C-alpha cells in the first residue's frame, strides 16, 4: 500500500519535516508517498482555530522547495506532490486557479465546513440542536456538491462526520450511496484513511462496512494515514491489509500528474 495523505509542520497543526516523514516511510517499507498539505484559503474564516489549520499562500513556494529537496535525499522513494483541498462553495474560482497553477500529482477533496451551518461550526464541533441523521445528510450533500465541481481527484476521510456508536450507513445509506455515485461520475477515487485508529472513534474513515460497500461497487481506492507526525506514517496499514487484502489489491489505484493509474497500469511519468 502507498501512503497518499501526509501533513507536516507547514500545516501549523502537525509536527515534523518532509525529510522525517520520508525517512519514516522508508523504514516501514512504504515505497510511494504523497504529501498533502492543507490548501491555503485566503480570507476564509480568518482566526478560526487560532489560524493553525493551513499555511499562507506566500509560504507555499518554500514548501515546494523542501519537497524537491526531500525528493533528492530519497531517490529510492516515489514522492508525489499533492494537496488536501477543502471544498468551500464560495471559493471554487480560487480553488480552480490555485490547483491549475501547480503541478500536482494528486488532489484530495475534504469537507471540514458545511455551508449550511453557522460560521463557528465544523465537522469536529457542531450544534446538538439538529438530529444526527440531518447532520450526516448535510455533510454528505456537501461532499457530493464538491465532487460535482470536477476539481478533485479523491474524496478524503469519507465519513469524518460520524459519531461513536452511530454508524452512518444505519441512518444515511442513501446519502452515502449518492456521494459514491457522484464520485464515480466525476472519475474520483475514495481514500481509506487510517487516522481514526489513533483517535477516539477507533476505526478507519470510512468504516469497514463502507469499505466493503465500495469494494463491492468497484470504487477505486487509495490508502492514507493522514499523518500529522512522522510516527503516524503507514499507521494500521498491516491491519487494514489483513482485513481487506483481496479486495484492496483489486481496488487500489495510484496517481501521476493527476492521472489515475489502475492496478497493473504503468505510469507514463517518472516512477
What does this protein structure show overall?
With 271 residues, the chain is of the alpha/beta class. The protein has a single domain, classed as Metal-dependent hydrolases (TIM Barrel, Alpha-Beta Barrel). 34% of the residues lie in helices and 14% in strands. It contains seven helices and nine strands. The strands form two sheets. A seven-stranded parallel sheet has the order 1-2-3-4-5-6-7. β5, α5 and β6 form a beta-alpha-beta unit. α4 runs parallel beside α5. The radius of gyration is 17 Å and the shape is globular. The two termini are 15 Å apart. The model has no long low-confidence stretch (mean pLDDT 93).
Relevant terms:
271 residues, alpha/beta, seven-stranded parallel sheet, 34% helix
Describe the structure concisely for a colleague.
The protein is an alpha/beta fold and 271 residues long. Helices cover 34% and strands 14% of the residues. The chain has a single domain (3-261), classed as Alpha-Beta Barrel (TIM Barrel), CATH 3.20.20.140.
What is the top-level CATH class?
Alpha Beta
What is the helix content? 25-40%
- N-to-C terminal Cα separation, in Å? 15 Å
CATH architecture annotation name: Alpha-Beta Barrel
User: Which sheet architecture does the biggest sheet show?
Assistant: 7 strands, parallel
Low-confidence stretches: none
* CATH topology-level fold name: TIM Barrel
- Estimate what percentage of residues fall within beta strands: 5-15%
Specify the number of helices.
Answer: 7
**Lateral strand order in the biggest sheet:** 1-2-3-4-5-6-7
Number of strands: 9
Work out the oligomeric state of the chains in this entry.
single chain
Number of domains: 1
How confident overall, as mean pLDDT?
93
Shape: globular
Structural class, from helix and strand content? alpha/beta
CATH homologous superfamily identity: Metal-dependent hydrolases
